[in-house]
Amino acid sequence: MELQQAVSLIAAAVKKENGIWADVGAGTGLFTLALQHLLHEGTIYALDKNPHALWKLASSKQVCIKVEEADFTKELSLPTLDGIIMANALHYAPEPVVVFNQLLSCLKPKGVFILVEYETNTPNFPWIPYPIPLQHFKAIVTASQHSLSQVIPISTVPSVYSTEHIYSAYIIKE
User: Fold this and answer.
1) Mind listing the pLDDT tens digit for each residue in 100-136?
2) Taking the CB of the first residue and of the last residue of the chain, which one, N or C, has fewer CB atoms within 10 A?
């Protein structure tokens, strides 16, 4: 996926031009860079279990990128966040509702949670062990212990790995 595709998948949900965000399960940092592209100023915590690829990401004068080694299935030590992006990572959690609730605990009221996932119901080990298609994400939101908006779909892009597509959607913590 190219940077412009990543930007298009999240732009509609990044309404504030500044803030403190976390890219949870940041991988190579593509969505960290997309978020940096959209913010005018702020801080992005790029979290990953294996953050080695993230060390190459450069902060700009306006947006500081802080790389941290972290396992999102465990409790995270983060400041109160304006937003969280989780791109192609929640499908690694055997208990996605638990992970989702833990992450939302870091999000301030009116904060945004953006999910980018594959629209598939079929596991593909080891890459997508626990698929989270859009309807499943809606069920996770409904099962959450937090007061949230309904799921708002943003966009889709074709997947290079299958005939399915990748979707993005967001919720707002009330």
Assistant:
1) 999 999 999 999 999 999 999 999 999 999 999 999 9
2) C
Q: pTM to 2 decimals?
A: 0.97
What topology does CATH give the domain 3-172? Rossmann fold (3.40.50)
The residues spanned by each domain of the chain are 3-172
For the chain, what is the HEC assignment? CCHHHHHHHHHHHCCCCEEEEEEECCCCCHHHHHHHHHCCEEEEEEEECCHHHHHHCCCCCCEEEEEEECCCCCCCCCCCEEEEEEECCHHHCCCHHHHHHHHHCCEEEEEEEEEEEECCCCCECCCECCCCCHHHHHHHHHHCCCCECCCEEEEEEECCCCCCEEEEEEEEEC
